[in-house]
UniProtKB/TrEMBL annotation:
Its main location: endoplasmic reticulum. It comes from Lates calcarifer. It catalyses: an N,N'-diacetylchitobiosyl-diphospho-di-trans,poly-cis-dolichol + GDP-alpha-D-mannose = a beta-D-Man-(1->4)-beta-D-GlcNAc-(1->4)-alpha-D-GlcNAc-diphospho-di-trans,poly-cis-dolichol + GDP + H(+). The chain crosses the membrane at residues 33-50. This is Chitobiosyldiphosphodolichol beta-mannosyltransferase. Gene3D superfamilies: Glycogen Phosphorylase B. Residues 1-27 form the signal peptide. Belongs to the glycosyltransferase group 1 family. Glycosyltransferase 33 subfamily. Mannosyltransferase that operates in the biosynthetic pathway of dolichol-linked oligosaccharides, the glycan precursors employed in protein asparagine (N)-glycosylation. The assembly of dolichol-linked oligosaccharides begins on the cytosolic side of the endoplasmic reticulum membrane and finishes in its lumen. The sequential addition of sugars to dolichol pyrophosphate produces dolichol-linked oligosaccharides containing fourteen sugars, including two GlcNAcs, nine mannoses and three glucoses. SUPFAM superfamilies: UDP-Glycosyltransferase/glycogen phosphorylase. GO terms for cellular component: endoplasmic reticulum membrane. The lineage of its organism: Eukaryota, Metazoa, Chordata, Craniata, Vertebrata. One of its GO terms (molecular function) is chitobiosyldiphosphodolichol beta-mannosyltransferase activity.
Length: 439
């Protein structure tokens, strides 16, 4: 710290002396040269101030997500793991929903809330999007440059526009190390609504390809993504599989013992399967009635709620409870079967909801997509389906012996209990901690 302060003082004196010489001697040096020299000196002075380190710098890490912190469990787990190892964490993101209680109560984690930028609400959509990006750039620069110097900046991608570029620039200016945690590719998510050939999608793809490789370290969620980053992006990444933290475990039967299903994507697939299941029972099949708990929120939630009411199902009860973060693991631990309708836009990421379910030893029926086999083992810890008819048949097959634990549903649960892998903490310590502590 002393050397930085001395250097800044010397540079300030040098700039003042240089100006005095030019002004006092009537030098013939062109004005632009004088201005360029002074500007360069001032930028160097500013850079020295930005990079000023103290005794606590190496124990400070910024975790950044351009999304809702409360709905970013993996980044919350990162923050908790860092704090457990004695790091002071500045957690930057939107604060739309309440984060987990462990995050809120941890003294080493300080949440810095930023507002979600909407952009200009008039004119073409492109103008709205461009103004949103510009305003968000300025907002991030203001927040990140004002905080204490951090040894590392850990960013979730997606969303990465403009976060990757801004975070990289801040790390260059401040001498911090930059880590990207690749959950997916942002451009593939945008392509779902705009199409692969849309100019905005092409720009987003170019942007990720240009700025992604500039990170000091990279994390990703699957080996398939690790291989793709290496082969097509020139990025060497470390696979950090999503693992359930200790809060996810089986809930004692005395608390709850019903059938819950968790979904948030293409709800129509499940609705059709439940209608078929209802038909099985009305046709004389010996099957239990279902209670389905649908968690999460989305733009179509109200639409589907009205659709559910119009079905008039007699043997299937569907509820949509609002859950606090700490209640969600209790719900999963109380369930007998989970349903996952997540489809990856890139085919390279895995549904974290299934990780949470497996942490509670909850068997899963999951819709098929590439690389799902890295997590869901068909006929071992769950089943994989491709459409509503196949899902309906799986529900019928799995629940035909309910509540006996001797059927396939009980077998899947026993397999999950005996093959329970690493928890998040051990996985993080093995794969991420060495990157943080590296010189």
């Amino acid at each position: 710290m002393a050397s930085h302060g001395t250097g800044a003082a010397c540079l300030t004196v040098a700039v003042a002396a240089l100006l005095a010489v030019f002004c006092g001697t009537g030098s013939d040096v062109p004005g632009p040269v004088v201005c360029l020299t002074v500007v360069t000196a001032l930028v160097s002075l500013w850079s020295l101030r930005l990079r000023r380190r103290d005794a606590g710098t190496e124990r400070r890490v910024c975790v950044l997500v351009l999304g809702d912190i409360g709905r970013s469990p993996r980044m919350q787990y990162h923050a908790l793991s860092l704090s457990k190892h004695g790091y002071n964490v500045t957690f930057v993101g939107f604060l739309d929903t309440k984060p987990h209680q462990d995050v809120l109560q941890e003294e080493r984690i300080r949440i810095v809330s930023i507002a979600e930028v909407k952009g200009v609400g008039v004119g073409p959509k492109l103008v709205t999007y461009v103004t949103k990006v510009i305003i968000q750039c300025l907002q991030l620069l203001y927040v990140l440059l004002r905080m204490e110097l951090q040894s590392h900046l850990l960013l979730q991608n997606p969303p990465g526009l403009p976060g990757i570029a801004v975070a990289w620039l801040v790390c260059v200016l401040r001498g911090s190390r930059f880590i990207i945690d690749w959950h997916n590719y942002g451009f593939t998510i945008m392509a779902l609504s705009h199409g692969q050939r849309h100019p905005v999608v092409r720009v987003a793809k170019w942007y990720e390809h240009v700025f992604g490789p500039l990170a000091t370290h990279n994390l990703c969620v699957t080996n398939a993504m690790k291989d793709d980053l290496q082969e097509n992006w020139g990025i060497k990444a470390t696979t950090l599989y999503d693992r359930p933290p200790s809060i996810f475990r089986e809930t004692p039967l005395k608390l709850q013992h019903e059938l819950f299903m968790r979904l948030d994507e293409d709800f129509s697939i499940l609705l059709k399967a439940l209608q078929e299941y209802e038909g099985f029972i009305k046709g004389g099949a010996s099957l239990p009635s279902l209670v389905c708990a649908i968690t999460g929120k989305g733009p179509q939630k109200e639409h589907y709620r009205k659709l559910i009411d119009s079905l008039h199902l007699e043997h299937v009860k569907i509820c949509t409870p609002w859950l606090e973060a700490e209640d969600y693991p209790v719900l999963l631990g109380s369930a007998d079967l989970g349903v996952c309708l997540h489809k990856s836009s890139s085919g390279l990421d895995l549904p974290m909801k299934v990780v949470d379910m497996f942490g509670c030893c909850l068997p899963v029926c999951a819709i098929h997509f590439n690389c799902l086999h890295e997590l869901v083992k068909h006929e071992e810890n769950g089943l994989i389906f491709r459409d509503s008819q196949e899902l309906a048949q799986q529900l019928k097959s799995l629940l035909s012996e309910f509540p006996s634990s001797e059927g396939r549903l009980g077998l899947f649960r026993r397999n999950l209990r005996t093959s329970r892998g690493q928890r998040w903490d051990d996985n993080w310590d093995q794969n991420v901690l060495p990157l943080i502590t590296a010189p």
